[in-house]
Amino acid sequence: MSHSFPEMIPAPEVDLLSPMLDQQGDTWTASFRGLKLRTALQPIYSISHKRTVGYEALIRAFDTDNSAVLPLHLFELPDSEAENLLLDRLCRYLHIRNYSGIKDQLNWLFLNVSPRVVTSGSQSDSFFGALLEKTGLPPHRIVMEIVEQPTDDAERLKDTVAYYRKLGCLIAIDDFGAGHSNFERIWNLSPDIVKLDRTLLTRATEDQRARQILNGMVSLLHQSGCLVLLEGVETRDQAMIAIDAGVDFVQGFYFRRPCLELEELPQSLADLEELLQDYKKRKQITQDPTQQLVGFFSTPFRRATEKLQQGQRMLQACFELLNHPTVSRCYLVDDKGVQIADTLVSDATIRNQDLRFLPLENTTSADWFRQQYLRQALAQPGNLHVTTPYLCVTGAYMCVTLSLAYQSEGRLNVLCCDILANTDQTP
Asked: Name one GO molecular function term (predicted).
């Protein structure tokens, strides 16, 4: 069946779309270009709450033989901006109709909307306000997902997002971390939720550095005031990566595939309790390896500080430390954070020195006060502290730093020791 659509669709057009929907029992379907459209919902889970907190609505299309049509092919059917706009709104209308019939008066409904659609026309999406009024679904239960891609009219997109927010909806940025994504849109739109693209998780599964970047991105988004959802979780290992990264919400085939049988959704439970228990066991078994370093290096570290207190020179005091194969350098810092004398570098570090970073090697009088390990040591003299792995600025390799503050001639000094975070790497 074909339709002829006007170039501009009058707004609000809820009444125009209503005849394209059909109710069968508690389920609604829609017709478009001879295809039957149905709603599929995929649960979104909060790790901390250990339960479902929302559902993403996805469109599924079927031909007259009830064979599935790829969503990509469905959205290629519109041959004008007006028809593209109508299809987008028809999908949202269908999803809201179906979701309104689910016996769930708490959780969110995530709706996808393209920047090309929300920036079309002369009005902010006034259709949506009329739709919510007609269906009775409270706007605070809607999360509008803006696909992370370039848009020709950033200001109109910003106005439209402001309209959704004024209605009372939450705003999410979708597919962040892929393609054209950047933090400028985070700053401009101030979303409530950021959905990280599955490619970030795929890379984190294969590459430890990518996992550290993922963890850092989650932390930065949290500092920006955004909740973080990681989609595309397909395996148990990926679920563990998501938990360890500190994301708030997860979504993916590992937990539940999109479901057309909407009445089954309230029973779509995920065993997050068991996952979290497994995560805790793994953390206990592999208990932050940096903490193991404290136990291993505690005795030689204290011997070194005792020798320094007795007036021995740095080279003599740190001889035992520098001869350990994982130790790259030792250095002394005063209570103001300023380095005292030159850094002592291990023989292995000298042999494997990367000449490209030679300008960073001389650290005489360097100021390390910004470093957390220095401030922690000064705040708790006599306690040995250790950092998580980080990029060493003096050699551009991953390391952890041990630090201990001790009294010397009436003032505090801090002995610091950099240790390779990965024993396979060479500085």
From this structure: cyclic-guanylate-specific phosphodiesterase activity
Q: CA-CA distance, 337 to 376, in Å (whole number)?
A: 12
228: CB partners within 8 A, 6+ apart:
193, 194, 196, 218, 221, 222, 246, 247, 248, 249
* Same domain (yes/no): 280, 296: no
Residue at 366 is within a domain: yes
pLDDT of residue 392: 85
pTM of the model: 0.80
In the prediction, which pLDDT does 1 show? 41
CB 305 within 8 A of CB 414: no
Per-residue pLDDT tens for 375-415? 999 999 999 999 888 888 887 778 899 999 999 888 999 99
Note whether 155 and 180 are same-domain residues: yes
CA dihedral 249, 251, 256, 261 (to 10 degrees): 100
307 shares its domain with 276: no
Output the CA–CA distances (angstroms, integers) from residue 297 to 301, 320, 322, 374, 414, in the order listed. Answer: 6, 10, 12, 17, 16
Query: Are the beta carbons of 163 and 121 closer than 8 angstroms?
Result: no
By the 8 A CB rule, do 47 and 106 touch?
A: no
Q: Supply the range of the domain harboring residue 334.
A: 289-420
Residue 6's Cβ-count burial label (10 Å; 0-12, 13-18, 19+) is exposed
CA distance 222 to 157: 23
